[in-house]
Design a protein that fits this description.
The chain has 662 residues and is α/β, with parallel strands linked by helices. It is 45% helix and 11% strand.
Length: 662
Amino acid sequence: MEDVLVLKDYKTVPDIVHEYGPTLKYGHIPLVIDNGSYQCRVGWSVFDEPHLTFKNLIARPRKDRCKKDAEPPVTPPIQIGNDIVNIEAVRFQLKTQFDKNIVTHFEVQEQVCDYIFSHLGIDNEGSVPHPIVMTEAFVTPNYCRQMMSELLFEAYGVPAVSYGVDSLFSMYKNRIGDSALIVNCGYHTIHIIPVIRGKVIAEHARRINLGGSEIICYLHKLLQLKYPVHVNAITMSRIEEILHEHCTIALDYQEEIRKWANPDYYESNVKRIQLPFVQSTSSSGLTAEQQKERKKEMARRLLEINARKREERLAEDEEQLNQLLAIQDLIEDGDTDEFNEAIKGFDIKNYEDLQKQISNLNMRIEKNKQRIAAAANPEELHETKPSGRFQPPSDPEAFQAWLNDTRAKYREVVQRREARRARRAAMLRRRTAAAAERMRVISRLAAAGDDFGTRDSDWDVYKSISREADSDSEADGERLVELEEALREYEPQQPSNQHHQLHLAIEPFRAAELIFQPSMLGNLEAGLAETMEYVFKHFNSEDQLLLANNVFLTGGCSQFPGLKERLERELLEMRPFQSAHKVNMAKNPSLDAWYGARDFAGSNEFENWCLSKEEYYEMGGEYLKEHHASNRYYKSPAPIIDNTLAPAGDANVVKEEIVVDC
């Protein structure tokens, strides 16, 4: 029995309102917010785990037009995070505060902050009396930090705030040293950040505009194109579940494709995902014998339809043959003018073409008569066939082996027929290898003389250049019909649940391969391995060795199985011969950024790295205090005032200085 995986269809559980005890209320405890573009994690610095973990999304459900304004709404006007229980129902009403990994929509961010503070139970009047540690993206623009500081200080009255980069917090949490090449695989972007002797080399860092969201969309399109019947059942939430549980990074992607092209490998390794379906209540009520008789009746009707078509085709051919014979009599009687006039309607150029068409029609009529006679006398046809050719054995194991062998023969004939069709199609096009080979053979035969056809081997040469159907293709066609009839009669009918299954083969590998080959999605940027090699080239050999010996993987998308092994293989290819390299994984790629920020908030020097409200008013909203895990601060340049755009003064206007006595 083959294993079928069932989708769990996870539902979110709404967050509770946590207790805001006196220790928290009066203890000046820092609040740690890991503001990720996929998930937001919030908690107090004195606890080991975050209190809130939710998707950074809000939804505004549409108003029900059937209800009056006075009636209370069934659902809240705005749903945030885990309050969105059925995310697919409001998929098109979802909003986020992020553009890629940068916060730009601060009206949404304000609603998310309201959700955070209310569910933590903070009930102070008009302010949040706790210093805040908040993560931000690497090299966040000053304007975005200014708006975030304005929101926290002006709207919520926080006493102090400190900003840090999530990947740097994760690095220092794992204590892997002060030199590393950080590879942060996020939901929208991948950052490659070199850190040498505790200093972030920001000018040589690089960003790839691709992450988990693009991988999810790509896998979604792949499966919807593969199963167009189940488009509505293949939702983004189910694709996320498939991505988290079944996607893998291939060690060698091309080799993986070659393996999956093998039907035996496919059958033994494919993952079958069961989609939800409703069992049909209407049943035919027929027994197995009655269903078998019904199939035989349908097959008999099909044979009758085919026989009727053959008879009609035979009558048309005989009528056309009589017309061509009448035209032949004209030339024998010497009526050349009438002959030339008659052949115009049949697309015949000369007497030789006429003879050829008459010969072809005679052969076609003879074949149709033989087929009609065979269909009319099925007993004689069965007697001519070898006994037991398609008679299955009675033993169950032998029957299964016979059925597998019949399926293999059927696939072989189908592949031969498809290859023959592809070859004929290639011959019809001018600039193809098949057409070039055909012209080469024809030119060689033309140079050989007029004795072509006198040898038995000439028949193989003729078949190689003929565009028409040959005897081999006709034999394959008859063989295909026989195999189809045997499978139709003896193959067990598939249960209805198998019609609602997804077969995951190369798709999980192909979607995850976007990290290394963004061009598969149409993205012109370099992949992860190429970008890492580009970053290495900016450093001398000593610093390159420091970075290569400590490649640090963090972020949600770094949890793909096989990513570490693939990066080790890529480093082996790009680094000098026999040079050392090492790839380290974060212990918890998704939560280590919050853990690192929590440890930072609990350190003795935390207050020295916080931006107070007084410093905010003095230095401006874009200012931040630098520390080991923060961005570098670069003051924004003063705006350029173009005096040429100022209106010219009137020479007749008298300027007077006015002194106001206060």
